Amino acid sequence: MSLKKFISDAISPWMKREGPDSDIVLSSRIRLARNLENHVFPIISNEQQADEVNQQIRKHYENQTYGNVGVLSYIDIDDLKPIEKRVLVEKHLVSPNLIENTKHSGVLMSDEENVSIMINEEDHLRIQCLFPGFQLIEALTLASGIDDWFEEKLNYAFDEQHGYLTSCPTNVGTGMRASVMMHLPALVLTQKIHRIIPAINQLGLVVRGIYGEGSEAQGNVFQVSNQMTLGKSEQDIIEDLRGVVIQLIEEERSARKNLFESSKIQLEDRVYRSLGILANSRIIQSKEATKCLSDVRLGIDLKLIEGISNTILNELMILTQPGFLQQYADETLSPDERDIRRATLIRERLKLEKNNE
């Protein structure tokens, strides 16, 4: 498979578009956790009980069309190869928990891959909507519409006092997780991020790495999300998160401006050294690759580098993950072999940019 075709097939269509403030906010996501009334929750269900839920949801919604989202196709997780499962996680289309659950789990997915609905993860349903850039309100509108559509044929486990009932107490209430993925290299370089994260945590929000809970911030990419789901409405949660994200955008832009004005030569040197490493390395580990990609994306946003698409960070952060590398190679690779493949793929991707000038 050629790299050009691989990129075209591998990158979710929604990721190829830009959204508001996309120089800093890479994506916005809304996820709703729901369970079916009178059904055992997935964390304690047996094979038969899990299959009943799966079949009920598929009967009503597999290959059905919702508005502009289009047709929802069903993917059976049990039918996938380990590498294919890993790729879905790397694309943020499913959670690690879903691929580890062997009890009749699946996902309903739109063609654009901006909507994915996990079945039998920690909860019976996890409705996820993804948008490029800073579009939390738009993502909530779509997720709420799909939620209402599902509720037309499914009875949710709901309590008048506590709201939507979920497997984990932290999701009880709205059952909503709202999050934004942000590229914050200047706040990291100026070390301001160390005082900002604790302040955000005190507001009932949480800052995590690119793959959510338990992951580190690769390539200076952070996920900011709500921590509380009980006692607040969806709109209140969104407004709280939006306020913090707007402040982070302002802080990051200010830090970038200060770096550019006070240390332009040093910044240029860092950016071009990273570009040189990416363009010429024959072996590169994931951590070094994401660090260099972050530097290059910063250089593009500050117009220090021209002729390279600003989507390259989004693309290569995913394409250089272990699952994608092995899918591209069409074989299982050792860590050393992945490092070689990663370097080759990045060099070829940068050459494609040069050829398209």
Gist?
With 357 residues, the chain is of the alpha+beta class.
Helicity level = 40-55%
Helix/strand order: HEHEEEHHEEEHEEEHHEEHHHHHH
The fraction of residues assigned to DSSP E strands is: 15-25%
pLDDT < 50 runs, ≥5 residues: none
**Strand order across the largest sheet:** 4-5-6-7-1-10-12-11
Overall morphology: globular
Distance between the termini: 23 Å
Detailed description of the structure:
This protein is of the alpha+beta class and 357 residues long. 46% of the residues lie in helices and 16% in strands. Strands 4-5-6-7-1-10-12-11 form an eight-stranded antiparallel β-sheet, covered by helices on one side. Helix 9 packs across helix 10 and helix 10 runs antiparallel to helix 11. It is globular and about 65 Å long. The two termini are 23 Å apart. The mean pLDDT is 90.
Question: What features would you highlight for this structure?
Answer:
single chain, 357 residues, alpha+beta, eight-stranded antiparallel beta sheet, two-stranded antiparallel sheet, 46% helix
